[in-house]
Specification:
alpha/beta; about 45% helix; N-(1-d-carboxylethyl)-l-norvaline Dehydrogenase, domain 2; Rossmann fold; single chain
């Protein structure tokens, strides 16, 4: 039986990855000792599905270990697959946690990153030596599914879509979709799914909503989304060489997800870390620079202003400093400023 080490036993690590693993021995590792202790109390948990769209799924695992331990090194030395489900901002620490285990190996380790980034594995490799990289084979996987904790159990969106970049050899997954150009898929996701999440989330925050699904049903927000997608879908379809119909379906799937009343996904979870989300290649600034429609651009400019307001809602003079290092035209900055000032009235 193949061995899988899942580093990061949170919502994705417990609620998404194990659903696709077929006949493998699973070990969880995490730096949060409380999660490790909770998992040590049993060797199984359940995944339930929003809206009870299908029966719950029982997940069995072998053990749970602390990520910064000798036991972690031993597991890395002997596992077949390392699946990483931590935020990409933690990859420098992750690299330190896995180095020694990789060095001790006599065979190649398959490392799969589960992160909604354009090329997460490249980021991870930037913290490893050439010797460590040569002992591994890397792949990227995308996560389109929403999951939440229920104690040790998980409640999840009923979505069995697992896109993974091409890799030599067979992977131990059910329902796997190999993607020839994985970075392009992730770009499309960031500029569609993540962009729409930001539009709904930051506008919903200003309007006082708690849940993403409630904000997605707001009449004004729905109109903003319609105005945005009329232009954005055409631009993305052309840029990534997909049909307009395919891109429209891609965007519509995002809207269906965010408006699903059974998925209790909080506004705050979706809009945290506004500074990162206002990056040059991120979900708002990049689409802003792609689209040409004034109406669609105004939707994004307003959302950028609301993102600044979210981070500094009590500091009138500080919010727009989030954009100090962002390349924006003077007219765009003026429009953002006007929307931002209105938040305080």
């Amino acid at each position: 039986m193949k061995k899988v080490l899942i580093l990061g036993a949170g919502k994705t690590g417990r609620g998404f990855i194990p659903r696709f693993i077929h006949q493998c021995e699973i070990t969880f590792a995490d730096i949060d000792q409380s999660i490790v202790d909770l998992l040590k109390e049993s060797n199984e948990y359940n995944i339930e599905f929003y809206g009870n769209t299908r029966p719950s799924m029982k997940i069995n695992y072998t053990k749970a270990i602390y990520a910064k331990s000798e036991e972690m090194i031993d597991s890395l030395e002997n596992t077949d697959y390392l699946m990483i489900s931590t935020d990409i901002s933690q990859y420098k620490d992750v690299a330190e946690e896995i180095k020694e285990g990789i060095k001790r190996r006599n065979s190649q380790l398959v490392v799969i990153t589960f992160e909604n980034a354009i090329s997460a594995s490249q980021t991870l490799k930037s913290y490893l030596t050439s010797e460590e990289i040569n002992k591994c084979q890397f792949a990227d996987a995308g996560v389109f599914c929403t999951t939440n904790n229920k104690g040790i159990d998980i409640i999840s969106q009923d979505l069995d879509y697992l896109p993974v970049s091409k890799i030599n050899g067979k992977l131990p997954f059910l329902n796997l979709t190999h993607i020839q150009n994985f970075p392009e898929l992730m770009e499309r996701k960031i500029y569609t799914y993540n962009c729409l999440s930001a539009i709904i989330g930051y506008n919903g925050f200003v309007k006082g909503y708690e849940w993403l699904s409630d904000a997605a049903s707001d009449k004004e927000i729905k109109q903003d989304i319609s105005s945005l997608l009329e232009n954005l879908n055409k631009i993305i379809a052309k840029k990534y060489n997909v049909t307009l119909e395919e891109q429209k379906e891609f965007a519509n799937n995002a809207i269906l997800k965010f408006s699903n009343v059974y998925i209790k996904d909080s506004i705050i979870r979706n809009i945290n870390n506004a500074k990162r989300k206002l990056g040059e290649q991120e979900r708002l600034i990049k689409p802003l620079k792609l689209i040409s429609s004034t109406e669609a651009r105004n939707v994004i400019l307003k959302t950028i202003a609301y993102a600044c307001y979210y981070d500094f809602s009590n500091e009138l003079q500080l919010g727009e400093k989030l954009l100090d290092n962002v390349d924006l035209s003077e007219s765009d900055r003026l429009m953002i400023h006007d929307y931002y000032i209105k938040c305080f009235k």
